[in-house]
Amino acid sequence: MSLRRAKLERQLQNAETAIAQYGKVLDEQKITDAERKKHPKWRQANASRIQIVNRLRSLKVIEDREEAIKQKHASED
Q: For residue 2, what pLDDT is reported?
């Protein structure tokens, strides 16, 4: 599991970097935050970031469930 978490966290960091870099381009073009949300390339980058965040949340639920199962089995022994 930890390998998958590390991979997702690295992907999240890359997605946030991509958004920040493209945000600088939009800043140079003097595009406001409200207009930025309508910009297709920024929306795509933000959607990727949100997707990775959701995957991390799901992974957290799975990890918590597995930990609870391990604790239950340890207490039974």
A: 57
CA dihedral of 11, 15, 37, 59, whole degrees rounded to 10: 20
Q: What is the DSSP string of 30-62?
A: T--HHHHTT-HHHHHHHHHHHHHHHHHHHHHHH
CA distance 44 to 19: 9
Q: Which amino acid is at 71?
A: Q
pTM: 0.83
DSSP assignment, residue 4? H
Handedness of CA 5, 7, 10, 11 (dihedral sign): negative
Pairwise CA distance, residues 34 & 26, whole Å: 12
